[in-house]
Amino acid sequence: MFDERDLGRGLLAVASRGVFVKAAAALAVVGVASLLMLAPFGGASQPQAACLPGQPGQVGNPIARGPLRATQVAFAKLIDQVAVQRGLPGQATLIALMTALVESDLQNLTYGDADSVGLFQQRPGAGWGSVTQIMNPHYAAEAFFGGSGAPNPPGLVDINGWPSMGYGDAAQRVQVSAYPDRYALREGEARQIAAAAGIDLKRSGNPYAGRSKAPAGGTITEGVSDDEDCGGEGLISGQPVNGVWPAEQQTVTDPTGTGGMVTPRTAAWVAEARKNLGTLSMSCWDAHVWNPTSDHPRGKACDIMVGADARRSSPARARGDQIANWAVKTAGQTGVRYVIWYGKIWSARRGTWIPYNGGGVYSPTDATGGHFDHVHVSVY
Questions:
Q1: Using one digit for the tens of pLDDT, what is the confidence trace for 74-91?
Q2: What is the pLDDT of residues 311-334, one digit of tens each?
Q3: How far from 36 is each of 33, 67, 70, 371, CA to CA, in Å?
Q4: N or C: where does the chain have the smaller number of CB atoms within 10 Å of the terminal CB?
Q5: Which helix (H) or strand (E) holds 283?
Q6: C-alpha–C-alpha distance, residues 171 and 152, integer Å
Q7: Spatial distance between the Cα atoms of 332 and 334, rounded to a whole number of angstroms
Q8: How confident is the model at residue 291, as a pLDDT?
């Protein structure tokens, strides 16, 4: 994985860009041949990987076709086979695929930053094992998943609470990358490859399989919907909402108990939401010193928590969809200006949901920044 110790890989990536297409076929042969290697998993491993602009695995690369996609599907099947044999849930496979896409474009590369090689760009010098071991994709997958055979540094199963993390966050905990936000951005492509490989990403399993003295957690089931466009499968849309909403001053004490002041329109929205949606964990006024343009300090916005990262929790996703849909359906009567939920934003002016990019303030891949753990509602 790239870090500040070595910029050489970036130069290598640029220099090799022109020969990448020619090299792809050779790398594919090396990769497929390595599928036959079944050396037993042994030593510990320390991920040190990430990619520089222009390297394999860079976010925004065209979707792979032909031989490269066939190679990616083959390695995806092998990674999932390791996970299945371990008894790991489908989300462990998904995280591994997202990671390998960033690190190597899901190829068994013979080169990388410093001494990094293989699917996950693991480093012999950091304790992952020998080059020969790491170039065995079965070994590399076992190393990424971790467990009692690889106590230092930790693999996925060695990280307490990883099932409740965002997928990209869990990958980062293993990889310790200098570019932590890139993993989450490959989720859609990882899901496409998994579908092509016939992998069940909703498979139940023990999140700490292969680890001794694992924390309590029990069997989990992947609870994420199959949509790949930032979510929104259960969200309603429609025509723009017209109306005239005169400006209001902050004259009402925030009914959610923050101690701040909100507009009468915001207070009325809170009352209607509570009447129609039942008990809500909600907060409206907030200073939001990190974002002076926010509607919260103006008393014109509320955040409604759903209790968990909805990417990990079907009940949280369903509750958030219910809240967001009600806010949209009643916008013409309550004066809702826009709603942000599950990586998307709806506005009364547009009338449709589009992907939410964080507005230059928040990380859209973060549970809070991407609004996966709460619904944001702003009124006129």
A1: 999 999 999 999 999 999
A2: 888 889 999 999 999 999 999 999
A3: 6, 18, 16, 43
A4: C
A5: strand 281-283
A6: 16
A7: 6
A8: 83
> What is the radius of gyration, based on Cα positions, of the chain?
23
Residue with tokens 């490989």: 197
Judge whether 123 and 50 are in contact, CB under 8 Å. Answer: no
Choice among 220-224, 249-253, 286-290 with the minimum mean pLDDT? 220-224
pLDDT for 203-213, tens place per residue? 889 999 988 87
- Rounded CA gap, 62 and 368, in Å? 29
Cα separation, 152 vs 97, whole angstroms: 22
Tell me how many degrees the CA angle 55-59-64 measures, rounded to the nearest 5.
80
**The total number of residues written for the chain in this structure:** 380
Task: Using alpha carbons, select from 296, 274, 271, 298 the residue that is nearest to residue 284.
Answer: 296
Contact status, residue 341 vs residue 354, Cβ threshold 8 Å: no
Encoding tokens for residue 164?
């409740």
